[in-house]
Every structure is written in structure tokens, then in C-alpha cells.
Amino acid sequence: MSAFDRDLRVGCIVAVFGCIVSWVSFTLPMRGEFIESPGIFPGLMGVLLILCSFLLIVRSLKKGGRVRLAQWGRSVIPFMTSPDHRTVLLGVLLPAIYIFVGIPLIGFYLSSALFLAIMFWFFVKRWRRWFLFLPVAVVLTVLLYLIFNKLFMLQIR
Fold this sequence. Notes:
The protein is mainly alpha-helical and 157 residues long. The chain has two domains: 1-81, no CATH class; 83-157, no CATH class. The chain is built from six helices and no strands. α1 (3-26) packs antiparallel against α2 and α4 packs antiparallel against α5 (108-123). The mean pLDDT is 82.
């Protein structure tokens, strides 16, 4: 598979993701004017994702990239099992578990401390011992609490 085929595939996936982000953000309830609504920034980022993916798709097609649907399925399993892609998969799966499972089940602060400790464990090679990454995760979580609850007076649960 050529690099342009991969660019075409990534461009299509990013375009779909950008459409979903834009649609969800622009359907958020508005508070005040459109420019002040909470969905304006994610919506604009979704539009930028769509534009960048369109440029990537056009460049790939000009350079000879083709859509080969049979190769899409065959390339997923090697991607998931390759040790080279471990950091990419963990970088996507761990935040997803943190956001969609950890925060709703055990709360923001405890899940943040666990998330930071796990991320330090996987991605910081110098800190392989628990007595290094665990205190840093706890201190960062306490700083989050102090900044948001005491300084900004926002109650995060």
C-alpha cells in the first residue's frame, strides 16, 4: 500500500470525524449570541478538520492514491497488533476510557489521578517506579482541585 493510499484513508476518516464534531457542537444549546455559544470553538475546529482532510484527500488523489476497500479491512488487524502502533492506540484508548468510563463512575479528581499515573507509567520511560509517577499524579490532581475549586470557584465533580 502506498503512502498516498494511506493519506486518502486518513483523510476520509478525519473528514467523517470533523463532520461529527461540527454537527454535535453546533447542535449544543446556545447561551446568548451565536459567537458566545459553547459549541463555537469545537464547531470551528471540526470545520478546520474537514478542510484539512479535504486538502489531504485532493493531494492524495492527485499523486495517485486510490480507494481500495479490500485493503482497509486487511490493514486494521496488523495495525492493532503492531508494537510500533502501541503508543498511538494507548494515546487514544486511555483518554477515551478516562472520559467515558472513569469520570462518570468514580468522579473527576480520582479518575484524573489514576489517568495521570497510568499515562506516566506508559509514556514516561524515566519514571518506571511507582514512587516517582504516583506522587506527581497526586500533586497534579491536588493542583487541579486548588485551581478550579478555590481560585476559579468552579465545582468539578
